Amino acid sequence: MKAPIVSILAKSVALLLAIGTLTAHAADQPKKLLLVTVTKGFRHSSIPTAIKVIGDLAEKSKAFTIDIVFNDDDLMAKTTAEKLKGYDGFIFANTTGVLPLADKQAFLNEIKGGKAFIGMHSASDTFPVKQGVDPYIEMLGGEFQTHGSQVGVECLVQDGKHPAVKHFGEAFCMEKEEIYLLKNYDRTKVRDLLVLDKHPNKKKEAGHFPIAWCKDYGTGKVFYTSLGHREDVWENKAYQEHILGGIKWALGLVPGESIPHAK
Ligand SMILES: [Zn+2]
Q1: d(CA 252, CA 261)
Q2: Which terminus of the chain has a smaller tally of CB atoms within 10 A, N or C?
Q3: Which protein residues have a CB closer than 5 Å to ligand 1 (ion)?
């Protein structure tokens, strides 16, 4: 008995529609980020707030989900060459010291190969070395050197179109924050997004003091902000928009330039 041609056609159309929906759905799937807050040096009291804020941003934006690492064993388990492949990017929120990554080279290679890296505050006080520069710091674009007492600062926006800073307008004025002075930073290798034009603590001393930037690393994208010491900074809506813009940019979800301003 012949199958009715109309029925076969209807089934084919239904199947094609189903495939189309599945494909479209896959493209809309939130990105998967590994959130690391492990510390081997100083541990910020703002870490629980950071985890909550990033979790809320993930939930509200629906742009990404987070897999949180809570301890050394968990970090080792989730950073093998094989497991790293399961993520679209990595967030280091207030990490410090030499972290026990299972495969650090594979981790850097994943970013270089097109993934996202987002670092907040003491992410630049991570993998410190006594001499030279650690490859992690080369990826990040700058390293913590020191900080003075907490102060009010006016962070000047350097790229009014970048999704991490455009909502600030001309500047992000902070009432009180711990401001890092950095080393192993080269303004010809990063695109500055926020800078100070004077020393945070010695206001009479003019200069170029980087606060936040973005950069390419291979075909991957890196966003770093040195802000994020205090709980109330993490709770600040403008700061939250800053890091959400940085995360979405690094994941390639929103456009933004990464060419350094300085030659
Ligand atoms: Zn701090």
Answers
A1: 20
A2: N
A3: 178, 229
